[in-house]
Amino acid sequence: MGTLLLNPIVFSIGSLSVRWYGLILGAGALVGLLLAIREGKRFGIPSEFFMDVLLFGAPSAIVAARIYYVAFTWDQYKNDLWKVFAIWEGGIAIYGALIGAIICAVILVRRRGYNFWRIADICAPGLIVGQMIGRWGNFVNQEAYGGETTLTFLRDRLHLPSFIIDQMYIDGVLHHPTFLYESVWSLGVLILLFILRRAKFLRSGELFFSYFILYSIGRFFIEALRTDSLAFQGPAWLASFINGLWSPMTWFGFEQGALDPSYGNIRISQLLPILIVIGAIVAMVLRRKLIANLPYYSDPIVSTKISEVDSLPAAASQEKGTTPAKGTMADHLDETEKKE
């Protein structure tokens, strides 16, 4: 068995190259958009709104994901700043992408008069399906893989197909296909979100928080298998605590990927999921306690911009006690009755 390197370039037109990485990320975004549009129809939200969210949110997510990654790996880029823009070579962070997308969505949703949490709930399945598909871009680029493993573990224990095993044979060593682990976990999260959003007890924002909780749990355990984790030097007690939480993975035959002690002893994408899970649970509890009449997921969604515009003429007429202005349909009907 030799190293199988898939050509990351699909085709080229002159100096322009179209890469699998970009196509796969684009496919994930498109499927996520279609899921949001389909669910949005149940609430009477026009599909154009979700297209705008993707149009503005996707670039924001990519830029923020790259900034997040570069910020924690600055030593790799400080002597060659042009490489900061080479995102086709990989090197983006999913949590950075989420930060960028959320900031953009908050601005856009408020401008359209919708409640952010209601729209975030609708978009949650689309976010996870985008991640599920997008991870296969890492597969093509041979990146974001885990530590060393054996052919017996991958073939006989996990029953993985040969094309995945061969692509994980890098520099003469087999590695854990962590991209696949996360993609499969994301599929499970997607199914759970589909089930949850039909639950009668679900309140506004809770599907979005559930997405973060479920994804973060999987990411915490998968991240420790990787060898390219962003990390920092933290207190020994915190590193020991995180390793203790991860230790059940050893029961299934997994071992942590190598992490250079001089680089750090705490993986950022293990600490952040812990904080996200705690924060999301606290937020859900507090919102139920502090917000009176918190809407259910199934409640109607109305844009305040639309309702305000539609109500202005009627409200103005009632306040002034006037009749509709001449030239309106009502005025035309009155003139017709007089002629008759």
From TrEMBL:
<keyword id="KW-0449">Lipoprotein</keyword>
<dbReference type="GO" id="GO:0042158">
    <property type="term" value="P:lipoprotein biosynthetic process"/>
</dbReference>
<dbReference type="GO" id="GO:0008961">
    <property type="term" value="F:phosphatidylglycerol-prolipoprotein diacylglyceryl transferase activity"/>
</dbReference>
<keyword id="KW-1003">Cell membrane</keyword>
<dbReference type="InterPro" id="IPR001640">
    <property type="entry name" value="Lgt"/>
</dbReference>
<protein>
    <recommendedName>
        <fullName>Phosphatidylglycerol--prolipoprotein diacylglyceryl transferase</fullName>
        <ecNumber>2.5.1.145</ecNumber>
    </recommendedName>
</protein>
<feature type="transmembrane region" description="Helical">
    <location>
        <begin position="208"/>
        <end position="225"/>
    </location>
</feature>
<feature type="region of interest" description="Disordered">
    <location>
        <begin position="313"/>
        <end position="340"/>
    </location>
</feature>
<feature type="transmembrane region" description="Helical">
    <location>
        <begin position="92"/>
        <end position="109"/>
    </location>
</feature>
<keyword id="KW-0328">Glycosyltransferase</keyword>
<dbReference type="GO" id="GO:0005886">
    <property type="term" value="C:plasma membrane"/>
</dbReference>
<feature type="transmembrane region" description="Helical">
    <location>
        <begin position="49"/>
        <end position="72"/>
    </location>
</feature>
<comment type="function">
    <text>Catalyzes the transfer of the diacylglyceryl group from phosphatidylglycerol to the sulfhydryl group of the N-terminal cysteine of a prolipoprotein, the first step in the formation of mature lipoproteins.</text>
</comment>
<keyword id="KW-1133">Transmembrane helix</keyword>
<comment type="pathway">
    <text>Protein modification; lipoprotein biosynthesis (diacylglyceryl transfer).</text>
</comment>
<feature type="transmembrane region" description="Helical">
    <location>
        <begin position="237"/>
        <end position="254"/>
    </location>
</feature>
<feature type="transmembrane region" description="Helical">
    <location>
        <begin position="20"/>
        <end position="37"/>
    </location>
</feature>
<feature type="transmembrane region" description="Helical">
    <location>
        <begin position="178"/>
        <end position="196"/>
    </location>
</feature>
<keyword id="KW-0812">Transmembrane</keyword>
<dbReference type="Pfam" id="PF01790">
    <property type="entry name" value="LGT"/>
</dbReference>
<feature type="transmembrane region" description="Helical">
    <location>
        <begin position="266"/>
        <end position="286"/>
    </location>
</feature>
<keyword id="KW-0472">Membrane</keyword>
<comment type="similarity">
    <text>Belongs to the Lgt family.</text>
</comment>
<feature type="binding site">
    <location>
        <position position="135"/>
    </location>
    <ligand>
        <name>a 1,2-diacyl-sn-glycero-3-phospho-(1'-sn-glycerol)</name>
    </ligand>
</feature>
<feature type="compositionally biased region" description="Basic and acidic residues">
    <location>
        <begin position="329"/>
        <end position="340"/>
    </location>
</feature>
<keyword id="KW-0808">Transferase</keyword>
